[in-house]
Amino acid sequence: MKKPPIVWCVGGSDSSAHAGLQADLRTGQDLSCHVQTIVTCVTAQNSKVVQSVEAVSVTMFDAQWQTLLDDVPPDAIKVSLLPSLALVEACSVWLQRIRKNHPRVSIVFDPVMAASSESGNRLQQSSVGAALLANLLPWVDVITPNAMEFTALTGLSLDDSLGPPLKAIQQTLFAEGVCPHALWLLKGGHDDSEQATDWLLGRTSITGFRTQRLTVHNTRGTGCTLSTALASFMAHGYELLDALTMAKAYITGALKTGVKIGEGAGPLGRPGWPLQIENLPEIVSSDGDSLGTGVAFEQVDEQKLGLYPVVDSVEWLALVLEQGVQIAQLRIKDPDDPELEDKITQAICLGEQFDAQVFINDHWPQAVALGAYGVHLGQEDLEEADLALIQKAGLLLGISTHGYYEIARGQSICPSYIALGHIFPTQTKQMPSQPQGLKRLEHYATLLHEHFPTVAIGGINAERFPLVAQTGVNSVAVVTAITQSAEPEAAIRELMAAFDRAKGVER
Ligand SMILES: Cc1ncc(COP(=O)(O)OP(=O)(O)O)c(N)n1
Ligand SMILES: Cc1ncsc1CCOP(=O)(O)O
């Protein structure tokens, strides 16, 4: 069996196992990671009270780091409860070493100060708070305080009722010399508004992850679970925004499946890999707006999906439609093409002639003006385009996505289909992200199944085509598998047949 990603969790033992390292172990296991632990303290607690906390010695703390490091380095580290100043300082030294010798290790810092059980819940010496930022922030990728921890750490308030003064907070956090690069995830789970928004603040970006507030009782270990899920997804190689979107979906599933154990609040459930679309957060800008217009786009006709050629000329479009494909795209990348409107007009006519769903890439104003069937837009285009206008004009809208975050962002638009790319390395386009591979594609197809038609794209040749079709996607887009084939007509017919075979369709 393949070695699972390794996550080191640095924190305290919780005798009730509702939170702390025990919750971290269950989370990592649930997400196919191997969690190794660096124990900072032993606590005697149950669902109601923290009875006592006993820190380990710095010698013991150092020995755990060294012993693990002598064997195999981690893929990600989650640091949580550090009960004493001596352990904060020791941890800072280890993180600095890790940063220097293993720069690819992701580091998440969840600044736990108290347990959320009902009383007697302090876990950390009160003198420690101020030292945390100075010692740990330089080495971490993301810090995940709740509102109370945020105030304790920074003296700033995150009071939703006043309207989050996010830009002012951002300026203070990223002021010269205060905090060089770590992102802040300011968790909004602790007030009582109808929706809960976690805000991710970078030096120049503010992104909200919004969910409906769940009225559930068994919420112990929420912070531990979120931060360990985040570290686990990063250990699997997901980018931070994708990992955070997944961690949010995971925590929503975990809150829905919590269990009552003991007299106080019980622990969260462990819902497995996030594959339920209803658990995805809504992605909002600093104003609290999502990309959606509030009205769904008409979806493509699933009977007319399958092979989806993406071509750069009217001649190619005619050729693919003549072979019987029922969805295709005209992708002209030169905005100054003097014949652009002519070409779009011809593409629209060809679509009508062959009763096919022809999408126009990028050029939405012309597509709207000329009455196209649909437009295909990338994520950056979505910010600029007038989506309400496209919708009012009756066009369909296909969108590109490259991972969980963009899927969550794009689903608020309720598009006609969601494209998932790039699956394999491609020579056709310079991609800023890594190829996603078949496993992730299969997950996205499951996540979106019965909600949005899906299209896979990127590096899909004749050999890979059946494997892609078998993941459950509704359509497979290709460029060079057709345009660089010695016999394009035969290649198209073979790809169409391969799609039908993969789906068990007989024609
Ligand atoms: C079906 C399909 N999926 C993805 C893309 C890529 O679109 P976009 O992100 O807008 O990039 P460009 O095509 O503009 O380079 C696509 N065209 N079609
Ligand atoms: C336009 C585009 N968007 C993501 S990958 C890609 C190119 C796909 O081309 P090919 O099928 O030749 O890899």
Automatic annotation (TrEMBL):
<keyword id="KW-0418">Kinase</keyword>
<dbReference type="GO" id="GO:0004789">
    <property type="term" value="F:thiamine-phosphate diphosphorylase activity"/>
</dbReference>
<dbReference type="InterPro" id="IPR034291">
    <property type="entry name" value="TMP_synthase"/>
</dbReference>
<keyword id="KW-0547">Nucleotide-binding</keyword>
<dbReference type="InterPro" id="IPR004399">
    <property type="entry name" value="HMP/HMP-P_kinase_dom"/>
</dbReference>
<feature type="binding site">
    <location>
        <begin position="329"/>
        <end position="333"/>
    </location>
    <ligand>
        <name>4-amino-2-methyl-5-(diphosphooxymethyl)pyrimidine</name>
    </ligand>
</feature>
<feature type="binding site">
    <location>
        <begin position="426"/>
        <end position="428"/>
    </location>
    <ligand>
        <name>2-[(2R,5Z)-2-carboxy-4-methylthiazol-5(2H)-ylidene]ethyl phosphate</name>
    </ligand>
</feature>
<dbReference type="InterPro" id="IPR022998">
    <property type="entry name" value="ThiamineP_synth_TenI"/>
</dbReference>
<keyword id="KW-0511">Multifunctional enzyme</keyword>
<feature type="binding site">
    <location>
        <position position="400"/>
    </location>
    <ligand>
        <name>4-amino-2-methyl-5-(diphosphooxymethyl)pyrimidine</name>
    </ligand>
</feature>
<keyword id="KW-0479">Metal-binding</keyword>
<protein>
    <recommendedName>
        <fullName>Thiamine-phosphate synthase</fullName>
        <ecNumber>2.5.1.3</ecNumber>
    </recommendedName>
</protein>
<feature type="binding site">
    <location>
        <position position="362"/>
    </location>
    <ligand>
        <name>Mg(2+)</name>
    </ligand>
</feature>
<comment type="similarity">
    <text>Belongs to the thiamine-phosphate synthase family.</text>
</comment>
<feature type="binding site">
    <location>
        <begin position="479"/>
        <end position="480"/>
    </location>
    <ligand>
        <name>2-[(2R,5Z)-2-carboxy-4-methylthiazol-5(2H)-ylidene]ethyl phosphate</name>
    </ligand>
</feature>
<dbReference type="Pfam" id="PF02581">
    <property type="entry name" value="TMP-TENI"/>
</dbReference>
<keyword id="KW-0067">ATP-binding</keyword>
<dbReference type="InterPro" id="IPR013749">
    <property type="entry name" value="PM/HMP-P_kinase-1"/>
</dbReference>
<keyword id="KW-0460">Magnesium</keyword>
<feature type="binding site">
    <location>
        <position position="361"/>
    </location>
    <ligand>
        <name>4-amino-2-methyl-5-(diphosphooxymethyl)pyrimidine</name>
    </ligand>
</feature>
<dbReference type="InterPro" id="IPR013785">
    <property type="entry name" value="Aldolase_TIM"/>
</dbReference>
<feature type="binding site">
    <location>
        <position position="381"/>
    </location>
    <ligand>
        <name>Mg(2+)</name>
    </ligand>
</feature>
<feature type="binding site">
    <location>
        <position position="429"/>
    </location>
    <ligand>
        <name>4-amino-2-methyl-5-(diphosphooxymethyl)pyrimidine</name>
    </ligand>
</feature>
<dbReference type="Pfam" id="PF08543">
    <property type="entry name" value="Phos_pyr_kin"/>
</dbReference>
<comment type="function">
    <text>Condenses 4-methyl-5-(beta-hydroxyethyl)thiazole monophosphate (THZ-P) and 2-methyl-4-amino-5-hydroxymethyl pyrimidine pyrophosphate (HMP-PP) to form thiamine monophosphate (TMP).</text>
</comment>
<dbReference type="InterPro" id="IPR029056">
    <property type="entry name" value="Ribokinase-like"/>
</dbReference>
<feature type="domain" description="Pyridoxamine kinase/Phosphomethylpyrimidine kinase">
    <location>
        <begin position="14"/>
        <end position="268"/>
    </location>
</feature>
<feature type="domain" description="Thiamine phosphate synthase/TenI">
    <location>
        <begin position="312"/>
        <end position="482"/>
    </location>
</feature>
<comment type="pathway">
    <text>Cofactor biosynthesis; thiamine diphosphate biosynthesis; thiamine phosphate from 4-amino-2-methyl-5-diphosphomethylpyrimidine and 4-methyl-5-(2-phosphoethyl)-thiazole: step 1/1.</text>
</comment>
<feature type="binding site">
    <location>
        <position position="459"/>
    </location>
    <ligand>
        <name>2-[(2R,5Z)-2-carboxy-4-methylthiazol-5(2H)-ylidene]ethyl phosphate</name>
    </ligand>
</feature>
<dbReference type="InterPro" id="IPR036206">
    <property type="entry name" value="ThiamineP_synth_sf"/>
</dbReference>
<keyword id="KW-0808">Transferase</keyword>
<keyword id="KW-0784">Thiamine biosynthesis</keyword>
